[in-house]
Specification:
Length: 467
């Protein structure tokens, strides 16, 4: 029986380690860096409301689906889906979804590593005391100085990619487990300290309003962005959670576990937003400032409080660690797959894949400076261009990879996973994996997986197309 298989890559000691690993994967730059800046770009409360709705109705059911597919298949996502599809008498081409997800995860890693590299640079800056008493202009200039310099970006990008490869090359995250147990609560603690600081700025309510004031007119503008971000922040739609599920003990309950991971992830994002926006308003900055938001606002806060630089140092270390525990989960699905497929050593497979991601990441490095004019997906007056140098509209390389993965590949991947669980594996298999105590609750959850989550993804896509 499929359920008795064991993965060749290893297994978690208990479901706690799964929670730790999945939370480590989910909580990352998406929560602390991306969520606040996207909320800023898409106008605040309406975006937050859509995001929360997508987490509850679409993100969590998909996370459940991924976890149970992984645990039942006990292999890399591609091979797990292939085996389970064949077992269920369905087409083995279902595994294509996992293949595309795997590629999406590698693409995300390519730019994630660059941004995580920024936090490494800021660790050094805070350590040197470069941000003491800094003004809003000074903080903006410091961030600009970093992104303008391709060599500095390359250095940190390279270092971060090596860190990621080292952990994955060594095998299933045992080394990280112990540090994560300390690091994650510490990260949360520091976020609360930051929240405390933002309360003293006198702009807390303005920040709060910005996050939670619901303006229905703004819903249409950011609905796909909100759904894409819900996938991104939960790490679903690419197979990262699926591969972690493959290492989960059979007797562990999936439902409560997944819920815990989702709640923690949401809590960290909201806390980060509540901590950052008051500082943005107090400093007279624009909330819609884009990807630099966190890297400009945090130094202002840390540069202007007692012991701020030391706190800032610790904070950026934790951001880097949170990013690190996420980045490894982007590499794992592909590493597991190619180890199974080629029989080569984990170290070899990891090196090759990390190098590939590093190369693609160089496109992101350059998109902030010398390559800023290289535009992709340009809808100009003279029609569509896939690539155009110096075009007015369009997206630079970083934006393009982010757009392609978060808005398109993640939702499609998630849709395929949840359809697979709900319709191909079917009720009995899902019941067997979830083994829930209350039949009514199971009916509700199964209905979410089978109908609500897939419909949710489709509705958002249609809403976006007809905008
Ligand atoms: N969830 C991670 C974050 O919020 C990003 C991630 C996406 C990780 C996809 C794994 C897979 O930072």
């Amino acid at each position: 029986m499929a359920k008795d298989k064991v993965s060749i890559h290893g297994a978690w000691a208990s479901r706690w380690v799964f929670i730790l690993a999945a939370t480590g994967s989910a909580v990352g730059l998406g929560n602390i860096w991306k969520f606040p800046y996207m909320t800023g770009v898409y106008g605040g409360g309406a975006f937050v409301a859509m995001y929360l709705l997508c987490i509850a109705l679409v993100g969590l059911p998909i996370m459940l689906a991924e976890t149970l597919i992984g645990r039942r298949g006990r292999q890399s996502p591609v091979n797990a889906m292939k085996a389970l599809a064949v077992e269920a008498g369905a087409s083995r081409h279902w595994s294509l979804a996992a293949l595309i997800g795997m590629v999406a995860a590698l693409l995300i890693l390519s730019f994630y590593s660059v941004v995580a590299g920024w936090s490494l640079d800021y660790i050094v800056g805070m350590g040197r005391g470069a941000f003491g008493g800094i003004t809003a202009e000074g903080a903006g200039a410091a961030f600009g100085g970093l992104t303008d310099d391709p060599w500095r970006l390359t250095l940190w990008h390279t270092l971060f990619m090596v860190l990621t490869a080292v952990v994955i090359g060594r095998g299933v995250v045992a080394g990280l487990e112990r540090s994560l147990r300390i690091m994650m609560p510490l990260l949360f603690g520091l976020l609360v300290v930051l929240l405390g600081y933002s309360l003293t700025t006198g702009y807390f309510m303005q920040g709060f309003d910005f996050l939670f004031h619901f303006d229905p007119d703004k819903v249409r503008g950011g609905i796909l962005a909100a759904m894409g971000h819900a996938f991104f922040t939960l790490s679903v739609g690419v197979g990262s959670i699926m591969v972690y599920g493959a290492y989960m003990p059979k007797n562990a309950s999936i439902g409560g576990t997944v819920l815990a991971v989702g709640l923690l992830d949401t809590l960290v994002a909201l806390t980060a937003g509540l901590a950052l926006f008051p500082i943005v308003f107090a400093a007279g900055l624009e909330p819609g400032g884009g990807p630099g938001l966190m890297f400009v606002t945090l130094p202002i806060a840390f540069g202007n409080v007692a012991f701020g630089q030391a706190m800032g140092l610790v904070f950026f270390v934790l951001v880097a660690v949170a990013a690190w525990s996420s980045s490894i989960s982007m590499l794992e699905p592909a590493v597991a797959y190619f180890v199974e497929r080629t029989g080569r050593s984990r170290a070899q497979v990891t090196s090759v894949l990390a190098l590939l991601c590093w190369l693609v990441g160089m496109g992101t490095v350059l998109s902030f400076n010398v390559g800023a004019e290289a535009k992709f997906f340009v809808f100009g007056d003279d029609g569509f261009h896939l690539f155009q140098w110096g075009a007015e509209g369009g997206r630079n390389f970083f934006d393009s990879v982010d757009y392609l993965t978060s808005r398109i590949l993640l939702p499609l991947g998630g849709l395929a996973f949840v359809l697979f669980a709900g319709w191909v594996l079917g009720r009995e298999a899902v019941r067997d994996e979830l083994s829930m105590r209350y039949p009514r609750l199971f009916t509700l959850v199964f209905w979410l997986i089978r109908i609500v989550a897939p419909l949710g993804v489709l509705i958002v896509f249609v809403a976006e197309l007809t905008k």
